């Protein structure tokens, strides 16, 4: 007789893992370091499923070690787990309770979840560099906002800005070096950069994503990025559509910037104006245009053709957004 599947929920923090094997077991704690995690994984029976929330870099060690041990690993969207816990009427919040909620969520939804896939060393380094570059660029912009309007004519901040620029340039150089080391990433980035609005940063980000995850279609990609509009209708009422925003915020922001950049281009400004003519606000038009170009990027990556802006321009109406 086949043993029932064991669903394991793990609440991850910097210092420790709190593990739940279900409501019939008391949660246990394991230090979040390689040797302790490896010792615990030896106790986990084959065929068990392990789930954890995405917690930045803290969940990465457990995910990699469990994957190497031959176990199926699921990294869950924290918002999904949060609303699931609210629907259960959970009256307390502790690490043990959270781990139990994750285990229960996994047991109920594992059939529609996608197992976590380990990135190659090049993919992981690219992802880390691009994420940190985006944070550094945000800090540079924040610094400019802090000192703007301040009477500091005798204070020279140029050295600080130059240091930011030098570090960003060094990161950009390393990103391009890593891309050049992989034939698939190199050729894919070259094709992606033929798309209006997509530059070195976006092409590197999309190539890293496409090379790691296999999306069924462009709709799945749009949903992953959190750019899918969610209806809010009831009876005769048609509520305002809002983006799900369930995907990586960095990727979503980059696609917005793609739409912004493309709207300023000679090739795609007519498409932007056609979107605006439908009554969409400026920000909405940037997002719609960026979403169209994301679909184009998916097609360009999957095929061998280069981008042709004429195929995207409106004829008798707008295409699918």
Give a topology summary:
Elements: E1 7-12, E2 16-20, E3 28-31, H1 34-41, E4 49-53, H2 60-68, E5 72-76, H3 78-88, H4 95-109, H5 121-147, H6 158-180, H7 183-192, H8 200-212, H9 218-224, E6 229-230, E7 233-234, E8 237-238, E9 242-243, H10 249-263, H11 269-277, H12 282-302
Parallel strand pairs: 1-4, 4-5
Antiparallel strand pairs: 1-2, 2-3, 6-9, 7-8
Helix pairs in contact: 1-2, 5-6, 5-8, 7-8, 9-12, 10-12, 11-12
Would you kindly provide a written description of the structure presented here, covering whatever features stand out?
By secondary structure, the chain is of the alpha/beta class. It has 3 domains: 7-112, ATPase, nucleotide binding domain (Nucleotidyltransferase, domain 5); 120-181; 182-321, no CATH class. The protein has 12 helices and 9 strands. It has helices at 34-41, 60-68, 78-88, 95-109, 121-147, 158-180, 183-192, 200-212, 218-224, 249-263, 269-277, 282-302, and strands at 7-12, 16-20, 28-31, 49-53, 72-76, 229-230, 233-234, 237-238, 242-243. The strands form 3 sheets. The protein has a 5-stranded mixed β-sheet with strand order 3-2-1-4-5. It has a two-stranded antiparallel sheet with strand order 6-9. A hairpin with a 3-residue loop joins strand 1 (7-12) and strand 2. The radius of gyration is 23 Å and the shape is globular. The mean pLDDT is 89.
């Amino acid at each position: 007789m086949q043993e029932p599947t064991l669903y394991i929920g793990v609440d991850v923090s910097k210092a420790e893992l709190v593990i739940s094997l279900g409501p019939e077991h008391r949660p246990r704690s394991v230090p979040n370091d390689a040797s302790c995690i490896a010792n615990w994984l030896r106790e986990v029976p084959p065929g068990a499923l392990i789930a954890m929330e995405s917690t930045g870099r803290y969940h990465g060690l457990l995910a990699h070690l469990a994957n190497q041990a031959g176990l199926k690993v699921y990294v869950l969207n924290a918002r999904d787990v949060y609303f699931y816990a609210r629907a259960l009427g959970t009256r307390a919040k502790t690490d043990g309770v959270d781990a139990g909620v994750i285990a229960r969520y996994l047991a109920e939804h594992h059939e529609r979840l996608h197992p976590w896939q380990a990135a190659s060393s090049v993919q992981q380094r690219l992802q880390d560099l691009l994420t940190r570059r985006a944070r550094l660029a945000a800090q540079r912009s924040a610094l400019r906002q802090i000192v703007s309007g301040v009477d500091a004519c005798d204070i020279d901040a140029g050295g600080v800005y130059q240091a930011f620029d030098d570090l960003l340039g060094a990161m950009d150089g390393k990103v391009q070096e890593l891309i050049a080391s992989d034939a698939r990433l190199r050729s894919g980035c070259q094709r992606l950069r033929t798309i209006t609005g997509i530059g070195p940063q976006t092409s590197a980000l999309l190539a890293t994503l496409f090379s790691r995850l296999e999306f069924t279609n462009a709709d799945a990609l749009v949903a992953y990025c959190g750019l899918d509009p969610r209806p809010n209708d009831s009876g005769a009422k048609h509520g305002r559509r809002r983006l799900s925003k369930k995907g990586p915020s960095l990727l979503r922001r980059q696609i917005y910037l793609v739409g912004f950049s493309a709207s300023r281009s000679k090739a795609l400004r007519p498409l932007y104006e056609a979107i605006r003519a439908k009554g969409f606000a400026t920000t909405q038009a940037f997002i719609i245009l960026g979403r169209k170009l994301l679909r184009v990027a998916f097609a360009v990556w999957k095929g061998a053709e280069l981008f042709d802006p004429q195929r995207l321009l409106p004829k008798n109406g707008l295409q699918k957004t």
